[in-house]
Structure prediction request, 97 residues.
Amino acid sequence: MNPEPADSFAFEVKVQGPEGPAQTYRFAGAEPVVIGRDADCRLVLPSPEVSRRHAMITCEPDGLRLTDLSANGTVVGDKLGEGTTLLLVPPLDIRLG
Prediction:
């Protein structure tokens, strides 16, 4: 059995915006995932309560990290990250707005 190439890395994240129920999204590759309402984001949430570039998930040697890019804050589990970077521990549940 051959190991998967590094660029086949995949993860799932459950995101709840200010409107509607949480949804699960799957991402592949090590490219950062920017979440926001801007059309250039990998995950677009078209809500005025979500910043244009609200948060970013990056693949780091020690795991996935979420950086809050917004003025409104981002909740991961029970931790509020305003302008901070948090190490993500599965399950990846994120609330925005």
